[in-house]
Amino acid sequence: MLELRGVTAGYGRTKVLHDVSIQVDDGGAVAAMGHNGAGKTTLLRVAVGLLPVMRGQVLLDGEDVTRLRPSARVRRGLGYVPQGQLSFPQMTTLENLHLVTTDRAAIDEVLDTFPALRGLLSRRAGLLSGGQRQQLSIARTLLTRPRMLILDEPTEGIQPNVVAEIEAVITELTRRGDLSVLLVEQHVGFALRATQSYYVIESGRITSHGVGGPGAVDDVRAAMAV
Amino acid sequence: MDAFTTPLLAGTATGALLLIAALGLTLTFGQMGVINMAHGEFLMIGAYTAFVTQQVVTNADVSILLALPLAFVVAGMFGLLLEVAVISWMYRRPLDTLLVTVGVSLVLQQLAKDIFGAQGDPVVGPSWLAGNIGVFGYNWPYRQMFTIVLALAALGGLAALLKYTPFGRQIRATVQNRDLAETMGVSTRVVDRITFFVGSGLAGVGGVAVSLIGGTNPNLGRGYIISAFLVVVAGGLGQLKGTVIAAFAVGIATAYFADWTSASMAQVATFALVVLFLQLRPQGLFTIRTRGLV
Prior knowledge:
The structure holds two protein chains of two kinds.
Chain A lengths: L1 E10 L2 E11 L4 E5 L6 H9 L6 E6 L2 E2 L5 H6 L2 E4 L11 H6 L5 H10 L16 H13 L5 E5 L7 H15 L5 E5 L3 H7 L2 E6 L2 E7 L5 H9 L1
Parallel strand pairs in A: 3-8, 3-9, 6-7, 7-8
Antiparallel strand pairs in A: 1-2, 1-4, 4-5, 9-10
Chain B lengths: L1 H30 L7 H18 L3 H26 L8 H23 L15 E4 L2 E4 H23 L1 H11 L1 H6 L4 H27 L7 H14 L4 H21 L2 H18 L14
Antiparallel strand pairs in B: 1-2
Helix pairs in contact in B: 1-5, 1-8, 1-9, 1-10, 2-3, 2-4, 2-8, 3-8, 5-6, 5-8, 6-8, 9-10, 9-11, 10-11
């Protein structure tokens, strides 16, 4: 379980998040939505440990991990797929995966999830398309064996046919039951289909929170329009 | 023929020394972005390690072989200490790092003067490096050839470490995207420290080769630090193959210029040549090819 309790955070003296609290239960899938600049990515960076809190706490399975570095949080089961299809561009696809593990069975498993990567193992990640890099990014994070998976706009800037594949994988992951998911996504329809509850963030504050599902689309759009 | 081969072969040996000095900088400056002006002093520490080893094991044939791994460890430990005590507090503040490491460099030089004296000490070469071999009229000393072999061994070892080991992958990942590496479970703090250890250790190995040519000297590092930085920048930051080509190019060019003019003019001419090259190609010999902002 991931919990952010009364978190205030920002960059320099500028506060971006103001007293934000969210919770993702074991096996649960939660969407965080909001306009550009609302503070969604900042929220995730705080959860992962890439940005320190000014106030508040981050708890992972009840343990206070607020002061832990990202790598220590990863070892405790937190997985993070950052925004922007990030990879290690000078390393091949296989080396990107080997960074996490060289276990052949584990790599085979993620390649079964993203079969398009099989033919690209010896290609440098910097030469992959955006969609291929995003698949690599999710595959690499899955190799860390997360119990809590955080995804930051996984379908942003990717061609439509690959978006469908990525959406299918994420929807499948959120339904596994052994994995908790926190999904930041601009596509409200997809985010609500893939998750069970949602938060709307505007100007660094939670402005709406409710049960997800396709029926919540109008509520979320209304909350985001305010 | 002499006018052609002598500078070529002597310059290749100088280039090999520069390469060993620059290999460590490729990691710490080229890849981690840390401007460590005390890097030259790790060469000096390597040279003094060779000298001290020879005081304990007087058989020069054996002591040099012992000194190579010892110099790697001793210089590496100094590098590690510098990283932990000073540089780790200054990541992303390159100007501060530059100024502080200039100070550290002076402290290390003074320390060497206090312990060993200002004059420097000779290091006796092993008998298996005495003599030379005739190449197109030039009597090429075995010591110079040894330097080249040592540089190529250091290069091969470093390249293999980076390419084939899990730790090498962690170094490359940290260099390419520190935050992303952290979120993949890589402890970048540990990687930074071990990278510094390896980079400084390589300079220590270079110091042993330097000691065989000119003995020890507290100021020995000064003669290499600027050239080593030039090599790393001209080769393309963080690019091993660029560093190799630039090191030998600078070494050989300096040797030819020295042959045509004088040793000090050769330094000036080489420096001017590298500056001109960087005006035409600021990114250095090699750059990273990517499809987009990744």
